[in-house]
Every structure is written in C-alpha cells, then in structure tokens.
Amino acid sequence: MIKLGYKLMSEEHGPQDLVRNLVRAEQAGFDLAAISDHFSPWVEEQGHAPFAWSVLGACAQATSRIGLMTAVTCPIMRYHPAIIAQAAATIALLSGDRFVLGLGAGERLNEHVVGEGWPGLGERHERFSEALDIIQGLLEGELTNYRGAYFTLDQARLYDRPAKKPLVAVAAGGPEAARLAGRKGDALVATEPKPELVEAFRSVGGEGPRFAEVSMCWAPTEDEARQTAHRLFRWSVTGWAVQAELPNTRGFEAATKHVTPEVVAQQVTCGPSAEVHLQSITKFIEAGYDHIILTQVGPQQAGFIEFFERELAPALRRR
C-alpha cells in the first residue's frame, strides 16, 4: 500500500509555521512528514533555516500519529555521526517509534560552515560509508569503539535508546549510492522516478521502504504556481553536480540567473489541476517507490493541504 507524505521545507518556513503545518497535515490524513536539515536556504527568497532537530522535538509532541523523518541529514561534516545517532534515538523515543532517520552525503551549502572545507566526491562517499556504520552500530547498541579513516568513537553509548531501532533511509541519486542503501541502510530515498535505483537497492538485498520526494506547486492558477515555483525552487533545476558544490545563496542566484518559469515547470508540476500532479506522482509509483513525499513549494501550505484532503488523496487512493 502506498504511503503519502508531506515535506516540511525548513528553507521556506520558520519553526512555528513548520509545526503548525505538520499538525494540519496530520489532520488531513498524511501518513508521514519529512523535514529538510539545512543550515542555509538555497536562495535568499526562501529566507529560513531553523534547526531541524529542535523542530522535530516540537513536532513529536504536537502530533500523535503521523510518521516523522529527516530528508535528509548529512552526518559527515557539520555533525559527527555519533551525535546524529543520539538525536535519532531521542526523537524516536519522543515520537513513540514514529521516526525514520534519512541520511545523505550532503552539499557544500550546509556543511562548509564549520570551517573544515568540503572534500571531493570520493572522500565524501567514504566518510558517508563510515558514518552509516557508526550510526547503525550505536542505534543497535552493538558499537562503542570505532577507528576509521575519518571518524573515531571512544567508549560511546546511547543511554536513551528505543527498543525498536529506527529505520535508516539512505538517499541515492545513482545506482552506486542505491546499492550502498541496500547494503548499509534499511530504506531508500530518491528525488527522481528512476526504477534503476530501486533495482540497484534490491540487487544487494535491500528490502525496506522506498521513499520518493515529488516536487509540486498548488495554487489557484497555473501562472501563479509557475511564478512561485520559479521564485523559490529554481535552484532545483541545476542538478546534483551543481547543488552539491555551491557554497552560498549567491552562488545559486548566479547559477539560476537565466532559468525561466517554463524551465522550472518542467520539473515542478504547477497549478490547481489534480490530474497534472497525479501524472507526476504516478511515475514514481510505477518506478517502484511506495512512500511518496509531496513537496508543496511556496507559502500556500494551507490551501495545498486542503487540496490534498479534498482531491489529491482520494484520487491517489483510488488508483
């Protein structure tokens, strides 16, 4: 059965609004909610970047049913993986085992702020692999000491750890990362409807949930939605090779200077028509993803949630 999720875009909303939006999303019938974990917005127009883990603590107490998730946290620079394991264990307890820890290899935008630079792709993947070992070992209660090429643990132990280990979902943009998710993670996260990622995940024994983020912009008119998507989400068309490397919002402003609303609308479905959004969502379902996280771009969260409750969710469940 397909599970439907709601994206808490911490780059577009302050902490109080994120919690309020989540409460309404739970009431509307969403099965889960995923929050981005960023130190900076992608572009200045977004204007926010609250600390995701504080927001998650508030969300856990403000809701009772909806699943919670990071999508995704990078545990290789700004955070030591032991701290992420501790944070995940705490949110799992506060939420009554409703939490999934989504992890990825990160981007310069958020990780360079601690002054340790930004390593090349190969080193990032090596760091990420070590971080997965540490986080999984601590959450399972089986690891206390570790000495790798990049990370060390010295007599570490999670004193507040849930009896049921939270799932660790690994973000993947290509088959190699998807195979890593299958080997060292419990679930897969993707942002493109690529069946080859699901196939790679399963090829090495991956059997857990497959999460997919689907970007959309509901608004009363298609033109309004296109303008909103362009203003706040044009960074998304740059591709991962660019997104992982630019250091600040000025870089993304320069990289998207010539991006038009029409180009953004090719990637972000726009407007009031449920059928337009359903076509995009269906691509992910047909590719093998069973947890669909809807990212509503822009300030019209209340209108989108009402649209989801009234039209989109019933249509999806009929399909």
Automatic annotation (TrEMBL):
Keywords recorded for this protein, A-Z: Oxidoreductase
Gene Ontology MF terms: oxidoreductase activity
Keyword Oxidoreductase: yes
EC number per UniProt: 1.-.-.-
Pfam families with a match to the protein in the record: Bac_luciferase
Keyword Oxidoreductase annotated: yes
Luciferase-like domain sequence ranges: 11-291
NCBIfam families (alphabetical): F420_G6P_family
Name of the protein in question: TIGR03557 family F420-dependent LLM class oxidoreductase
